[in-house]
Amino acid sequence: MxxxxxxxxxxxxxxxxxxxxxxALSPAAEAAARALGVVDRPDSRRHxxxxxxxxxxxxxxxxxxxxxxxxxxxxxxxYRGILIGAVIAAGVGLVDDLxxxxxxxxxxxxxxxxxxxxxxxxxxxxxxxxxxxVHTLPEGLAIVLTLVWIVALMNMVNFxxxxxxxxxxxxxxxxxxxxxxxxxxxxxxxxxxxxIVAGACFAFLRSNFYPARIFMGDSGALLLGFVLAAVSxxxxxxxxxxxxxxxxxxxxxxxxxxxxxxxxxxxxxxKPIYAADQWHLHHRFENLGFSQRRTxxxxxAWCALLAGAALATRFVPFRAHGEWNLWPTVAVGLIAFVAxxxxxxIIALLEIVKLGRLRAxxxxxxxSDRRKLKRSA
Length: 377
Known about the structure:
It is a single chain. It contains 14 helices and six strands. It is mainly α.
């Protein structure tokens, strides 16, 4: 693994250049947004900040991804498609930030960006199932699954972007993990692009962590979701690695769970799927009294544990040449157990503590009603 990294120093250079671009461009984007009045104003439905915050951070992220990509990537047809699609995704988000788009127009733009990637050869045409082996999908099904995956992840990251630094941190952790796994799978271009995204995300936290001076906006959220989805297809899923199918699902479990929970809630109560609300994981943390910093730190730590589980699954040789190795299997099992335990803890924290508070509130109401009845009698 070290030898592969030394052979592809563009990974480190891409990471550093992307970070430097974000650090240089974020203040300019902040100033431009304030001058143009492109700011995010707080409301009670979704946002938790108490003051208008500039929204053009996505432009800094876009340029920070494009510049090192053009410098360090071997731009074959597929990676040209990813970069073109990234520009379209960011453009759709930018228009939404500036003017606001109807949900179906925004979805159409997302499908357009995903279609560009698919048209340039980014398709989930094969993947490997454990115990079954490599499986090739029919062309039509491969195209549909790829479109659904890219559009879904774009919206997942957009939904997740509700607290200062949350989406940038989780996307940075996911991208760094993808870079390591892609390099180990012999996909250096995917590793370089993932490292570029990681460098841009981590550097963006300097201006985006609480209290944020600038937001990435829909332009940044759709951009990051698009690139992570496309690079996961090209760099992780289309390999012969036995557990490659689960790498993106493990690393991106938080936005996947968050979106699944919110969509289920909205369907249950008959609300439009695209409507803003306060049912996201980060909102539920805040409803329990957690500060923004503490909430984001918990979710970052959870994401890091899941990323560690994915890396352990890749690098610990628990099954080699069809044979199970006892101690490596035990090690992977323990790491997976810790990640599972953390997930159960978070869910218990959100559900059980919330239930306890609801019961306490109900008890308080009953006692209050009894006192009122006694006074009236």
